[in-house]
Design brief:
It is a multi-pass membrane protein. Pfam families: Nuc_sug_transp (PF04142). GO terms for molecular function: UDP-galactose transmembrane transporter activity. One of its GO terms (biological process) is UDP-galactose transmembrane import into Golgi lumen. The protein is an all-alpha fold and 358 residues long. It has 15 helices and two strands. A two-stranded antiparallel sheet has the order 1-2. It is globular and about 65 Å long. The two termini are 13 Å apart. 47% of the residues are buried.
């Protein structure tokens, strides 16, 4: 509800600022941790299986969302609420429709690990903003959404900025040990496919959620539950033989666990942002996250900031703000763009907040 974010405070601080600070930290920490978990010294020959990490991520989200959803259900219904009356909300009705985005998001999560192991943190984070373009295209194609000239211009600028960053990255001949173990072309391909999947999954999810009754937490439980099936299938197809020989938790260490937890709890943080903040403030969070992760990469991961990178990042940040600039016509509302894989967790809240009000 409008203005609600300005009224809710925690420890005297408005929730919107707390949520955005958490999102900035989570975005930066997640990309840095994902990248480092794939290239960290001493683990080159003992890399964990990403398919197991994706499964654990979904299991953690499923557990947390189920507990919170059931608590919310009992608070709304009262002491008469029972688990047997809560379960039909999860597995009844049109819950089967969540199987499609669940499969897509599982593919996207696996591709994120591939990209994180083949691109520097800053390059990955900038390039991943292509999801704005893919989501916009699928919104026009599937939801028949109308985009004004300003938004098309911003998408053109966004593409140009990412192209500059990627061309500089592909042409780089850095001799650092970290860079020599990466394949920029593989990383870029993984990001590109992940962005396409993100756009399709986000728009489809929004289309399914509009006009439905289940709560945000119930939808999150459904999404995570249906994600388990493709997660297990991926394990069986790609890593089963290695897992049987080396073990499910082969290569795991505190950094890997931190990456899994950051990814699992990211959806909850994004849900707070949707509830208490607006797109402009979320753009500030994304922009600060890109800048922060780039600076950290310079000191910790031997990343070299070039003039082309600065220009590309500037164009991407400018395009992001330009895209979310309010249109003159009310009919152009509903342009919520998921920022990360985890924002599937807040799609229902996003759909509600962007739907035309009666």
């Amino acid at each position: 509800m409008a203005g609600k974010g300005d009224e809710v405070k925690f420890g005297g601080i408005p929730m919107k600022y707390i949520a955005l600070a958490l999102l900035t930290i989570q975005n930066s920490a997640l990309i840095l941790t994902l990248n480092y978990s794939r290239i960290m010294p001493g683990y080159a020959d003992k890399r964990y299986f990403t398919s197991t990490a994706v499964l654990l991520n979904e299991l953690i989200k499923l557990s947390v969302c189920f507990v919170v959803g059931y608590y919310q259900f009992r608070r709304n219904v009262g002491s008469e609420a029972r688990l047997r009356t809560f379960l039909p909300q999860i597995f009844g009705g049109d819950s089967w429709k969540l199987g499609i985005p669940a499969f897509l998001y599982t593919c996207q999560n696996n591709l994120q690990y591939v990209a994180a192991g083949n691109l520097s943190v800053a390059i990955f984070q900038v390039t991943y903003q292509l999801k704005i373009l893919t989501t916009a295209i699928f919104s026009v194609a599937l939801l028949h959404r109308k985009l004004g000239l300003t938004k098309w211009l911003s998408l053109f600028i966004l593409t140009g900025g990412i192209a500059i960053v990627q061309l500089q990255n592909l042409a780089s001949d850095s001799k650092s040990p970290v860079s020599s173990s990466m394949n920029p072309l593989t990383g870029f391909t993984a990001v590109l496919i992940a962005c396409l999947i993100s756009g399709l999954a986000g728009v489809y999810f929004e289309k399914v959620l509009k006009g439905t009754n289940p709560s945000l937490w119930v939808r999150n439980v459904q999404l995570s539950f249906f994600s388990i099936v493709p997660c297990i299938f991926t394990i069986l197809v790609s890593d089963y033989s290695n897992i049987t020989q080396k073990g499910f938790f082969y290569g795991y260490n505190p950094v890997v666990w931190l990456a899994i937890l950051l990814q699992a709890f990211g959806g909850i943080i994004v849900a707070l942002c949707v509830a208490f903040a607006d797109n402009i403030m979320k753009n500030f969070s994304t922009s600060i996250s890109i800048i922060l992760s780039s600076l950290v990469s310079v000191y910790l991961l031997d990343f070299k900031i070039t003039f082309a990178f600065v220009v590309g990042v500037g164009l991407v940040i400018a395009a992001t703000f330009l895209y979310t600039k309010p249109e003159k016509k009310p009919a152009d509302q509903g342009n919520y763009i998921p920022l990360t894989t985890q924002e599937a967790a807040s799609s229902e809240a996003a759909a509600e907040s962007n739907a035309p009000k009666n």
